Amino acid sequence: MVNDDIEKLFGELKGCFDIEEPVDGHRQRFLEKLEASSTVANKTKKIRWGWKPISIAAALLLLCSIGFNFFSGSPSVQQQVSEISPEISNTEFYFASVIEEQVKKMQGKSTPETQKLIDDTMTQLRTLDSDYKKMVQDLLDGGNSKMILSAMITNFQTRIDLLNEVLEQIEEIKNFKNYKNENITA
After folding, report:
1. Residue range(s) defining the domain that contains residue 114
2. Same domain, residue pair 129 and 152
3. What pLDDT does residue 174 have?
4. What is the rounded distance in angstroms from the CA atom of residue 12 to the CA atom of residue 159?
């Protein structure tokens, strides 16, 4: 069956095959073209090979410079402050953890009656944090370090006092609401 298909194909193509001899010098012209194209290909390969080491070197140089800048970049603000006053880092960590704990406690006691009070408190805390960042920058710029450090600690204490006061007000609102509900049901 396969042979029949092949025979049939060749039978249909009979007379369509190119059986003429090429013109004189065909072989010589073909070899010249082949040689010319191989010379161009060799030149192209040489050019590409010449650029390859340069491009690899450029890529390595770029990676090294990025790595150098990444690992030896300027110290963070926190590191610079620690160099000026190592105690402030410990103090800042302590106050920040106390403030974070009280903020969570305050937000946990949020009710519709206390929401405006909590929102106002968070706005005031953001303002105090912005002031603290300005003080840190003043400290880094070489201001009076004792006075600035004292102001930074006062800023933290102000935040804690504010949160304590708001927590007390939330408790008063809660107690007043419970007292009011007791009088209504009695």
Report:
1. 77-185
2. yes
3. 84
4. 98
Q: Do residues 125 and 167 share a domain?
A: yes
Domain count, the chain: 2
Return the SS3 of 185. Answer: helix
Is 108's pLDDT higher than 70? yes
The per-residue pLDDT for 96 is 86
- Identify the residue whose tokens are 């340069």: 54
Q: Which of 25, 157, 42 is nearest to 102 (CA)?
A: 157
The end-to-end CA distance of the chain, in Å, is 107
Instruction: For residue 29, tell me if it sits in a domain.
Output: yes
- Which has more confidence, 49 or 64? 64
Cα dihedral across residues 37, 41, 44, 46: positive or negative: negative
Q: What is the pLDDT of residue 154?
A: 92
More confident residue, 80 or 3: 3
CB 174 within 8 A of CB 115: no
Q: Based on the fold, state whether residues 66 and 82 are members of the same structural domain.
A: no
Q: Do residue 114 and residue 53 come from a single domain? A: no
